[in-house]
Design brief:
alpha+beta, twelve-stranded mixed sheet, two-stranded antiparallel ribbon, 6 helices, 18% strand, elongated, cell projection
Length: 416
């Protein structure tokens, strides 16, 4: 509350009395008696002044009263707002208190989750270590078991070869097949036609094994060739069947690890007189010169020999060396899926949309959208491998809807 001080200023009215000049001295004679009416006029003037002063005070008091009411109204509004603010502040303090309690609980739970996570990670690492140790033990036991079986049976099978061969088309095949197998008549599906190009022999090097054979070299062995638009390189020319075949893959005893990288499968690896893979770049350089036949020769652990021949087309590096085959003859049903784009892939390289076949089956090979039909570049397993996963990682082929056949040796070759 504000104290309002009112100051009243009283202005004295000087009433001038009429003094007779003759009364200036006490010694002068007494004047005439004053007029009553003159006294009444002075009273009226004084009353009028007091009345005006009263009206002024009334107006001032009325105005001051209104201002005081406004101040009180504003004070009431301020008090109400302050009260509401105090209530809201209390509510916020309560909410803050609850939030702190909740935060403390969450922190405790978070610590518990972290501790559980650390424990789970530790247990998982321990389980993985135990799994790895068990896998090593199982593999060691499997190898020991295989060695014992081989020792007990006295297995001394000759190291016959699985191979892939290439040969140009149009060369007359000998009347007797090089393998003890019965040929089939060519399928009605026409072979794939390639754009044939002329061989350009530079530095007097033959373009392929057919050119080597036509020069009079009829002995199987390592020769240097120089395909068109390519540098010279060595190949193994196989002439045992009476016609020239270019050997592009050879498996016989497991001396060479075929679980190689994409780069090595492009360039080639191994020894031409032993186990080897010629190299996708070299195979592509050869087959781009003319029409070639692809031949697969297989021997299982019962010494049964099989073969199949295809007309085929091989794509370049940009297509992941896509292989497209059409069977001509042979006695291996379903060795390679026909009329299907088979893309080459390894454990460190796969084509878009392809499965991770090499991770599960080892080696590098031509697969499509499924795994498991065949793999001639898998791990070289001994016979009677008990582990099914290990069998699938080995060299094998599987006819449609039939069991898996483990392969002892293989050849892949080609000729014009």
């Amino acid at each position: 509350m504000h104290t309002i001080k009112l100051f009243l200023f009283v202005v004295p009215l000087v009433i001038a009395s009429r003094v007779d000049p003759d009364l200036s001295s006490f010694d002068s004679a007494p004047s005439e008696p004053k007029s009553r009416f003159a006294m009444l006029d002075d009273v009226k003037i004084l009353a009028n002044g007091l009345l005006q002063l009263g009206h002024g005070l009334k107006d001032f008091v009325h105005k001051t009263k209104g201002q005081i009411n406004d101040i009180f109204q504003k004070l009431n509004i301020f008090d109400q707002s302050f009260y509401d603010l105090s209530l809201r502040t209390n509510e916020i303090k309560e909410e803050e208190k609850e939030l702190r309690i909740t935060t403390s609980k969450l922190q405790v739970k978070n610590e518990e989750v972290k501790n559980m996570s650390v424990e789970l990670n530790t247990k998982l690492e321990s389980l993985l270590e135990e799994k790895t140790a068990l896998q090593h033990k199982v593999r060691a036991l499997e190898e020991q078991l295989s060695n014992l079986i081989l020792s007990a049976a006295g297995a001394q099978e000759p190291p016959e070869v699985t191979s892939l061969k290439l040969r140009k088309t149009g060369i007359q095949e000998p009347t007797e097949n090089s393998l003890s197998s019965k040929s089939r008549a060519p399928r009605t599906t026409p072979p794939l036609h390639l754009n044939e190009t002329e061989n350009t022999e530079q530095d007097d090097l033959p373009a392929d094994c057919s050119a080597v054979y036509n020069r009079g070299e009829h002995t199987s062995g390592v020769y240097t060739i120089k395909p068109s638009n390519s540098q010279g390189f060595n190949v193994y020319c196989d002439t045992q069947s009476g016609s020239p075949w270019t050997l592009i893959q050879h498996r016989k005893d497991g001396s060479q690890d075929f679980n190689e990288t994409w780069e090595n499968y492009e360039k080639g690896f191994g020894r031409l007189n032993g186990e080897f893979w010629l190299g996708l770049e070299k195979i592509y350089a050869i087959v781009q010169q003319s029409n070639y036949i692809l031949r697969l020769e297989l021997q299982d652990w019962k010494d049964s020999k099989h073969y199949v021949e295809y007309s085929f087309h091989l794509g370049s590096h940009e297509t992941n060396y896509t292989l497209h085959v059409a069977e001509i003859a042979g006695n291996i049903p379903g060795a390679l899926p026909e009329h299907t784009d088979l893309m080459f892939s390894t454990w460190n390289h796969r084509a878009k949309g392809q499965l991770y076949c090499p991770e599960s089956y080892s080696g590098g090979w031509w697969w499509n959208d499924t795994c498991g039909e065949n793999n001639l570049n898998g791990k070289y397993n001994k016979p009677r491998t008990k582990s099914k996963p290990e069998s699938r990682r080995g060299i094998y082929w599987r006819p449609q809807s039939r069991k898996l056949y483990a392969i002892k040796s293989s050849k892949e070759n080609t000729k014009e």
